[in-house]
């Protein structure tokens, strides 16, 4: 419950146009200090939970094990974690490409789901809580690779999970 409250606080901060990406290049020690805030840690943790749920716990743990083994007593970059996950998924999913859409741009998407009979359509757009004119940027280029999981009347989350990766502005 505490973590959920932290997630909502981080989302509120991340929905401002003055937010920052989880990962970005830095030029000075001051910029490094600015990066290590609640937004980076909580959003980062939330993204790892999202990835774990999408890949399944076993695949995620195997990817973490490969990552820890490959970088034992060494340094690593975020791409190294995604490469380890790619190694475990055997190229069936480009985890690096998916996760870069989350860590290299600020904010998060609002996903709208519309049902018409048996057809479902989804679309994404950047969610902005409050527009700050001095920090405004165009939202046309924002695109996330959003793992969507769902259930049907024939299955539930414990028996079968259907998954869809929304990697365009809209899909069916």
UniProtKB/TrEMBL annotation:
Gene3D superfamilies: 2.60.40.1910, Neutral Protease Domain 2 (1.10.390.10). Residues 5-102 form the Peptidase M1 membrane alanine aminopeptidase domain. It holds the Pfam family Peptidase_M1. InterPro entries: Peptidase_M1_aminopeptidases, Peptidase_M1_dom, Peptidase_M4/M1_CTD_sf. Signal peptide: none annotated. It comes from the Eukaryota. GO terms for biological process: peptide catabolic process; proteolysis; regulation of blood pressure. One of its GO terms (cellular component) is extracellular space. The keyword Hydrolase applies. Keywords: Aminopeptidase, Hydrolase, Protease. The keyword Protease applies. GO terms for molecular function: metalloaminopeptidase activity; peptide binding; zinc ion binding. This is LCAP aminopeptidase. The gene is Lnpep.
